[in-house]
Amino acid sequence: MDLDFDTKVFDKEYIAVADRQEPIVRGGRHLFDRLPAAFEGVRRLGVIGWGPQGSAQAQNLRDSLGGAVRVAVGLRRGSASWDAAVQAGFSPEDGTLGEMYDVIRESDMVILLISDGAMAETYEDVFAALKPGTTLGLSHGFLLGHLDLVGGAFPTDVDVIAVCPKGMGASVRALYLQGREVNGAGINASFAVHQDVTGRAVDRALGWSIGLGAPYTFRTTLRSEYLSDLSGERGILAGGLHGIVESLYRRFRDHGMSDEEAFRHSAESVTGPISRIISRDGMLGVFKKLDSDEKQVFAEAYSVSYPVGLELIHEIYDEVRSGDEVRSVVLAGRRLPRFPMGKIDQADMWRVGQKVRADRVPDEIPLDPFTAGVFIGVMMAQIDALLEFGHPYSEIANESVIEAVDSLNPYMHARGIAYLVDNCSITARLGARKWAPRFDYALTQRAYPVIDDEQSVNLEEFAKFEEHVVHEVLRVCAGMRPSVDIFVE
């Protein structure tokens, strides 16, 4: 995959990521005076939607551009978000808030941030409203996956670009605000140029990312982004994590722990010390924190979990690539008015979690070696699968490790894994509900019995762990970590 690009406005540099060179652009508020040049030809920028990403991106771009480009929010007629947009300073009176199709027709650049299901239902009307020469921006490649599925295509007379922040919308806004005082605050992002008819697509994408406050922006493709993103959220980012901790919770209870201790050794251990150590010192850092007996426990747990994770990630990736996961999201969106997704937080484990978090003493959360081995084993399986499928190192590191330990897991540590699974996007919620039981089942039925029944554990996969290329990749990417922790509301 050729990741190189040319920019007339910003400064490109190359970073050595293991055995590869990958181009990036550093952000920063000192570059905001270059944004008018990046957005040359754009007098009005429409942000469509007011979900977590829509609200954050509209406000960040408005503040960064400082009036050089008018940022307008487009919403459906009667939208429940209208008042929230007004409270944030957007107004129909000054032309910064309007009906979505009016805003699309009147904008020179349109950032489409409605839900995946809504995109699938409305894309033909959206495309019809775009002016020739418009730049269409996305923060997720789902629409490309849907177009592939139905035999559709983007209009040939518009740019198609993407900027994909590697964090939740609340974090995109909150760290941007912190960036006024703290150098380096912000959410890193990937960017893609799928179609360039104006000759300005790269600079508009980079300007968009820098305007959001991204400290670093790296290159991907729209297809690569949605394949890794949908696979990742069904894997270690949400669905896999959900299944892992439920299987561990039951196992620890079966081994005699109380409900509260089982939760601490499973969910709390993953979202707390394990994620915190990986964030700062990588996966090897977790292993090195363990004593010799714990290292053996880790190695065995890793060895039985890795092959299960690898098989499931391959299946997930095949389902995403074939269009089946995209189709399931579209169909779910049509069912939801009649059959809303139920919440998982009433199950016994998650009620126990509420009590554990209320009584939490952070320094007393255990770094459980078995839990660490299972979690990192599945995480490494996802890394290896994405490597096999040809994704760039920077994307693999973000979609399999950094987004988990620097964004999602800290949020779940504060609010609960069940809370995130119940309140994330429809696409992620559906994926987590569909695949979490598969991880739970495979680990419970196939991985843990090897150890619990005292069978011989094959350590062949673990033998590759300490020398894996991803450790060097993470070391380089750690240098691009935001200088403040991801915001947790």
TrEMBL record:
Q: Where is the signal peptide?
A: none
Instruction: List the Gene3D superfamilies.
Output: N-(1-d-carboxylethyl)-l-norvaline Dehydrogenase, domain 2, NAD(P)-binding Rossmann-like Domain
Establish whether keyword Iron-sulfur is in the entry: no
The UniProt record lists the KARI C-terminal knotted domain at: 221-363
Whether Oxidoreductase counts among this entry's keywords is yes
The pathway it acts in is: Amino-acid biosynthesis; L-valine biosynthesis; L-valine from pyruvate: step 2/4; Amino-acid biosynthesis; L-isoleucine biosynthesis; L-isoleucine from 2-oxobutanoate: step 2/4
Q: Which residues bind Mg(2+) 2?
A: D229
List each copy of the KARI N-terminal Rossmann domain by range. Answer: 25-224
- What keyword terms does UniProt attach to this protein? Amino-acid biosynthesis, Branched-chain amino acid biosynthesis, Magnesium, Metal-binding, Oxidoreductase
UniProt-annotated binding residues for Mg(2+) 1: D229, E233
InterPro entries named in the record: 6-PGluconate_DH-like_C_sf (IPR008927), 6PGD_dom2 (IPR013328), KARI (IPR013023), KARI_C (IPR000506), KARI_N (IPR013116), NAD(P)-bd_dom_sf (IPR036291)
Query: What cofactors are annotated for this protein?
Result: Mg(2+)
Q: Which family does it belong to?
A: Belongs to the ketol-acid reductoisomerase family.
Q: What is this protein called?
A: Acetohydroxy-acid isomeroreductase
